[in-house]
Amino acid sequence: MVRTRNQQAIINWRGGAWTELDEACCYEMFFDLCRGRPEISDETTFNDVLIELARRLSHRLWKNFSPLKVKQKIHLLRCQFQSFVQFIEKPGVHFDRATCTLQIHPVYWEHVNVEDNIARYFRTNGFPMYKDCEHTFNTLHAAEIHFDGIPGYSRNLPLEIDSDDSDSEDEEMEDNPAVNAPDEIDMDDVDARSEVDSE
Predict the structure, then answer these.
(1) In this structure, is residue 162 part of a structural domain?
(2) Region labeled Disordered — which residues (predicted)?
(3) pLDDT (tens digit, 9 = 90+) per residue, 183-194?
């Protein structure tokens, strides 16, 4: 199926493992669970809410949504909200908080040398969840999400959103090794050790 650049951007933004329906249900249930609950500023309570969200979402859509998958989705939502808040502070961008509509004035183009993918996404699609995110993350001060217990995760090395604008998907693994990746193994050395051990 041929997609427009914006359709592909929406799919990438959503994440490959989430359908449009999955995402819509997740956000609707998430905001319903958080609405009017100031106790979500407590880390334990907020993370319990996310576990409950995973259970309800799995039950509603008849799919398996692990707590980790849901936590990652909500973490990404928070990062996208924070990026949108930065975007609407740019010169020439007018955001009407009452209607959640964007207007881009000519001044914007005078200040933008090259528009990155995130800015292009916001300019084209806006951010429909702004009011709900503003209430949940800024008014209720939803706590940070626990990813403890996940191999390789450390609070000192937080999750990051890749803002690389390159279109290349054929990058070599050597160029982007995993965090704490093991050293390369010399198979000749392994074979030599095996022969010595067998003697």
Answers:
(1) no
(2) 158-199
(3) 444 445 544 444
